[in-house]
Design brief:
This protein has 308 residues and is mostly beta strands. Helices cover 9% and strands 49% of the residues. The strands form 4 sheets. The chain has a 12-stranded antiparallel β-barrel.
């Protein structure tokens, strides 16, 4: 009996020692500095109890040159937003955008987190969803026939990896949905009375699939290079959106993140940017209606303030 107890005690002690020797799997920190990566969300979700205030600003495009100081004096677009993390890994937000007075609500959830032991979990995975509502007045019904036509939706999976202490990348496929699509009437023939038979031909589809690729490289502890590329995948009958190329600098502290960059997106709403971007990164028409190579870019900045 004594021998059996001794053997059990030794076995339990060995198990406890092995458990103590095995380090806990810790999540990688600071894959990105901010919840924003220029026009897209990054994979990051702040810690529980964090309140965030966002100011996003986009100037006009450079196509008019010195006439409007390369877009700096052109009509600009602004978004003000707030968000809060009520429980671990979940961020809920709301915002209002100047262009078309777009009200949006969002939810972001960190599904998986990359671990320091990369074999355990090599990437981080976050879901981001956004719902937007057009607040513009439409008393005569020229904009929308139904209230639900004002709604647009955006769903995205963000897959990221912190490759080194300085370099992080992410890939984010997305699907946007618009309840209302602009169309035109097409005459398909005549009936027995000689009246034209018309049907609506939609210029765009309701759904739009795209993919975004972005990254950050830390130059110093507080300054980084950031870049992002958005590629539309869905082909519409007409009015296909242009891709977006953006690049710039990020400056971060424990409570602030400031990004300044050049890019092609203007709308400050994920679904509108993906579906309706008309700014081409390859060429544009200048004031003389001549095609200019080099891209139709605009200057923008994001300011994020965290309270926790």
């Amino acid at each position: 009996m004594l021998l059996a107890c001794t053997v059990c005690s030794v076995g339990l002690a060995q198990d406890a020692e092995e458990t103590m020797d095995k380090p806990a799997r810790k999540a990688v920190k600071n894959t990105f500095e901010s919840v924003w990566l220029i026009d897209n969300q990054s994979v990051m979700v702040p810690i529980k109890g964090t309140f965030e205030f966002d100011i996003q600003h986009r100037f006009g495009t450079v196509k008019n040159g010195f006439e409007d100081l390369y877009g700096l004096f052109a009509p600009s677009n602004i978004r003000l937003g707030v968000s809060y993390v009520p429980v671990d890994n979940l961020n809920l937000g709301i915002g209002l955008t100047k262009s078309n007075m777009i009200l949006d609500g969002s939810a972001k959830y960190a599904i998986l987190k990359q671990t320091q032991d990369s074999w355990a979990m090599p990437v981080s995975l976050t879901y981001f969803g956004n719902l937007s509502y057009d607040l513009r007045e439409d008393e005569d019904g020229t904009l929308y026939k139904n209230e639900t036509d004002r709604l647009r939706f955006f769903n995205q999976l963000i897959i990221a990896r912190k490759i080194t202490d300085r370099f992080s990348v992410q890939v984010a496929p997305s699907i946007s949905w618009q309840n209302f699509v602009y169309g035109f009437y097409k005459v398909t023939g005549t009936d027995s009375s000689g009246y034209e038979i018309k049907e609506v031909a939609n210029e765009m589809k309701h759904e739009h699939i795209a993919i975004a690729v972005g990254g950050r490289y830390k130059i110093t502890e507080s300054m980084s290079l950031i870049a992002n590329y958005d590629q539309p995948i869905t082909k519409h009958t007409a009015n296909n959106p242009n891709p977006n190329i953006s690049f710039g600098f990020e400056f971060g502290t424990s409570g602030h993140a400031f990004q300044i960059f050049a890019g092609n997106y203007y709308y400050l709403n994920h679904q509108r940017n993906n579906i309706f971007n008309t700014n081409s990164p390859l060429e544009y028409k200048n004031v003389n209606n001549s095609t200019v190579k080099g891209g139709n870019f605009l200057i923008g900045f994001n300011i994020t303030r965290l309270f926790n």
